[in-house]
Amino acid sequence: MNLWQLVNKEIRFRKVGFAIGMVSIAVAIASLVGSVTLLRAYEVRTEQILAERERETREEMTQLENDYRNIMRDMGYNVMILHEDQSIAAMRAAGYPEKTMPEQYVHDLVAGRIETLNHLLPVLQKKIVWPEREMEIILSGTPGQVPIKHKKRFLTADGKAYKNPVMESVPQGAINLGHGVAKDLKIREGDRVTLLGDEFVVHRVHPPQGNMDDLMVWCNLDVAQAKLDQPGQINAIFALECVCIPEELGRITTEVRKILSDTQVYEFSSMIVARAHARNRAAEAHETAIAAELEHREAMGKERQAFAQVLVPTVLGASGLWVFFLVLGNVRERRNEIGILRAIGVRQRTIAGIFLVKAAAIGLFGSIIGYILGVVVGAVWGGVPLLSKDFVQLFGFTLFLGAVAIAVGLCAVAGWVPAIRAAQQDPAAVLREE
Amino acid sequence: MSEVLALEQVVKTYQARDGSDVPVLQRVSLTVRQGEFKVVHGSSGSGKSTLLLAAGGLLQPDSGTVRVCGQDLYALSPEARSRFRGERIGFVFQQFHLIPYLNVLENVLAPTLAVADTGARQRATELIELLGLAHRLKHPPADLSTGERQRVALARAMLNQPALVLADEPTGNLDAANAAIVIRHLREFTERGGAVLLATHDNRIDAGERYELVHGAVQEDSSVASPTVS
């Protein structure tokens, strides 16, 4: 017979008392574990919500990015390479650059293997009056995109053309019309028109752009050079999709001017920057919303924490008191037993141990039940579905050990005084009573 | 025969609730040697239980000495005295004081809580058989008759092979037949070299060395040769 066997037998004999003590501790530990779990579940939910918000933001940003790229593609150009003497103000006033430069420049750029340039579109533009129609237009001649040989990923297998050209070249004997020109002159695709003495087929009418493009008439560069009497000349090279962020403009300028020293690089559309800023503002708005959500949830979490800080010690204290009275009652109930155990030589510390071990057992089993109960209640209350992956994550070994340690410690403290009282009980006083 | 228990000039006085002194043991001197069975006879309140508790190291007298196997009990620390008691002294009480949630075997083994002994289980089984309780081995005290309960208490007292058994009214709740069984076993214990000091008010018990406890003082009465129940 040893102390553990004696305690085990006694617990089985007085099941109700033990169960009451265990339930009391289970409730206390459940309130502790439940509070911690609830806060943890709340954090899990917060993380889920934030992850959801971030995912939404990412999706929205991706959408914005796509929109941005589409806009860029629709607009066609990122930067323009102009003659260095070209006045920007004059260009804006005229609607096109007036200063010309050799067409060879575009081939020099291709040969220069500049990495930041992906698509090059040389143009020769000039505002003229369409004599046959008596309408002011901008005649824009282009050979289409000039293949940059080392940018193989953009090119067809033979390396002679772009797989997906930003602007298709105008076929020989054809012209393309801006929407405004076609509308005013009531010209449709397929119509045959005369321009500067020659007949052309209208290959395409561009959709409305809301800018100078609506007033353009596009033809092959050779045609434009001939009609405008500027053989071998261009007045701009549009460098398409060459930069993704405006901040890289300086780098492109440096690289271009190394090859074409008498040129300037002009970032021609402030809409690009505006779009980028809009995108940044959208991102900032999302970040602000997420921060507000986080702040709100943190505030609520703190409220719950404050509540738990009052509730848990109160319940633990009440349970400790309850265990104290239970053990005290047990000591009184077992007065004769203590007397005879002392008479047969059982030492005082063993007597105290009997009650302390029993109190600790109440704490141990009560804490296990309370832990499971607390996690379940905390999860349900915290909105975490039972048996879900998040629910499983709420079970923490450290919390379990902590709960057991607190419960066993609490019961040991609560049982200490009654146990000492039992140990100090005078056996003679009991045995003499009979 | 060597001296097992020796009380010398033992005095014990209780204090009544009104503060007055109630003398219970007045300069009691008594010796029990190995193989002896001594009976202290006295009416209720004569101090019999106090005498046995003092002799067993459970109640310190106001003065005088108590020696068991030559050891002055009250010179020992409480813890050492407990251990000494567990090894050398067995107690039998009128109310049996069996532990209700332990079965017969476990009750008999209860002293191993104080003194661990690997041979205890074997001895407990033998004692239970000797006392005619083999068929009750796994029964709780509630299932036993009073006579059986007292035999269990007796087996428990004898488990650690004590030098001395102190029996306080061991037949007080028993019928004549059961009382005779208990006395017989105690007598057999003395025949095996143990010593017994029995306190009773039961006139049925005739003992060879019988003492009367009158007003806390012991008077010898050697009218009976050996302890029996008449």
The portion of residues assigned to helices of chain B is 25-40%
Distance between the termini of chain A: 27 Å
Radius of gyration of chain A: 43 Å
Tally of discrete structural domains of chain B: 1
Helical content class of chain A: 55-70%
Question: Strand order within the widest sheet of chain B?
Answer: 6-7-8-3-10-11
Stretches of chain B where pLDDT is under 50 for at least 5 consecutive residues are 222-227
Q: Mind explaining what this structure looks like?
A:
- The complex is a heterodimer of chains A (434) and B (230).
- Chain A has 434 residues and is of the alpha+beta class.
- Chain A has two domains: 3-62 and 279-433, no CATH class; 78-268, no CATH class.
- Chain A has helices at residues 3-13, 15-75, 88-94, 104-111, 179-185, 221-227, 249-259, 270-333, 335-343, 348-381, 389-394, 397-423, 427-433, and strands at 79-83, 101-102, 119-130, 135-142, 174-177, 192-195, 198-205, 216-220, 233-234, 236-240, 263-267.
- In chain A, helix 9 (335-343) crosses helix 13 and helix 10 (348-381) packs antiparallel against helix 12.
- The longest helix of chain A is centred in the last third of the chain and has 64 residues, at 270-333.
- The relative contact order of chain A is 0.18.
- Mean pLDDT of chain A is 84; it is low at 73-77.
- With 230 residues, chain B is an alpha/beta fold.
- Chain B has a single domain (36-57, 77-229), classed as Rossmann fold.
- Chain B has six helices and twelve strands.
- Chain B has helices at 48-55, 78-88, 104-109, 120-130, 146-158, 176-191; strands spanning 3-15, 21-33, 37-41, 63-68, 71-72, 89-93, 164-168, 195-200, 205-206, 209-214, 217-221, 228-229.
- A six-stranded mixed β-sheet of chain B has the order 6-7-8-3-10-11, sandwiched between helices.
- In chain B, a hairpin with a 5-residue loop joins strand 1 and strand 2 (21-33).
- In chain B, helix 5 (146-158) packs parallel to helix 6.
- The longest helix of chain B has 16 residues, at 176-191.
- The A-B interface holds A 1-3, 5-6, 9-10, 12-14, 336-337, 339-350, 427-428, 431-432, 434 and B 49-50, 53, 56, 58-59, 78-79, 82-87, 89-91, 93-95, 97, 99-102, 106, 109-116, 156-157, 160, 168-169.
